[in-house]
Amino acid sequence: MIGDAVIVDLRTGPGFAHALASTLLNVRELLDEQWVVHAWVSADANLSRTVRQRLYKLSGLRHALRCANAGTCAALRLKRMTGENSRAWYNRLILKTDFWRSFSAPHVLLFELDTCLCPSPTWSLRHFVDEGYSYIGAPWHPRSVISPDDQRPDGAFHDGAFACVGNSGLSLWRRQDVLTLQPAASSDDFLEWRTVIADMWLSAQLQSKRWRGLGLRGVPNASEAARFAIETYGYRDTGVPVGVHLNALQRREPKRALLQAEHERMLVLKCPPVASVFYRWDETRHGSVGAAPENRG
User: Fold this and answer.
1) In this protein, which residues make up the domain named DUF5672 (predicted)?
2) Of 214, 277, 286, 296, which has fewest CB within 10 angstroms of its CB?
């Protein structure tokens, strides 16, 4: 087994179940049998059943998965859990050793409700697995990166603690490399900062370990990361990414707008599942960075 693909989302309700089922369908259909898909969902008694029924109804995965029950199938595993439905809770979760030890494969693919995989990527997911990066996610546009003093860079991509790779909404991790960071993550010195932007903190730590010659591969540059996933970094028709994170509706700060409409139209032609993503994060409804909003973004 190459990897575990994981979504954690504790919302409930028919609309959410419908969107989750659609996202799971996309991911399960486009990953090969060497990947197990995990959905960690609310302990709501009806949610798992609702999602399973929707999965079967949408595209008849029952035969494709070779199992009678999506909740116990080796290819798709549903786990009920309790927790806070907030960005801070989710970030605390992915900083815990127990989370990463819940899986056995060497790689973990994290995905969220507003993501999709592309059917015919120019660079396959296996390509990025073989490259051996500790972490890879969609690169941020420099204007979307927030520094500790809330000053946003206005120039090109830069390196260091606020390097622009990358967003964990759709991201690939070497599980053992992340586990090496857990002792550092156990300190409370910067807990509040880490729970706001855990992916940026983990990326910076992985880069630091690499620079110190501790045997980690680190993260790729923004151009390479954009081949893996697109989010804030403008699509330039250089190929089809492995997937897309449609974190697209920040209306309060137009200068920080993410994937632009014309880029999204171009992507739809190359990656049709983009048009089928039900859920879109909206800062006016779900809050901004640091506000512990309903959705992590």
Assistant:
1) 85-245
2) 214
Looking at the structure, tell me whether residues 79 and 134 fall in a common domain: no
Asked which of 63, 83, 103 is the last residue of a domain, the reply is 83
| CA dist 234 → 126, 130, 139, 227 (Å) | 24, 26, 10, 12
Count other Cβ atoms within 10 Å, centred on residue 125.
23
Helix (H), strand (E), coil (C) string for 98-135: HHHHCCCCCEEEEECCCEEECCCCCCCHHHHHHHCCCE
Whole-model pTM: value is 0.79
* Amino acid making up residue 255: K
Could you give the CA distance from residue 27 to residue 181 in angstroms, rounded to a whole number?
A: 28
Please check the confidence at residue 250 and state whether its pLDDT lies above 50. Answer: no
Same domain for 176 and 274, yes or no, is: yes
Strands (E), the chain: 3-8, 35-42, 76-81, 107-111, 115-117, 135-138, 167-174, 229-230, 243-245
pLDDT score for 268? 86
Contact 167, 232 (CB under 8 A): yes
Contact at 8 Å (CB) between 139 and 222?
Answer: yes
Single-letter residue type at 248: A
Q: Report the side by side order of strands in the sheet with 3-8.
A: 76-81, 35-42, 3-8, 107-111, 167-174, 135-138
pLDDT tens digits for 67-101?
Answer: 444 444 556 787 888 887 777 788 888 888 899 99
- Look at residue 277 and tell me if it is in a domain: yes
> Which has more pLDDT, 234 or 207?
207
The span from the CA of 277 to the CA of 149, in Å, is 34
**Which pLDDT tens digit goes with each residue over 166-209?**
888 999 999 998 888 765 555 555 555 555 677 777 777 777 76
Predicted local distance difference test score (pLDDT) of residue 211 = 60
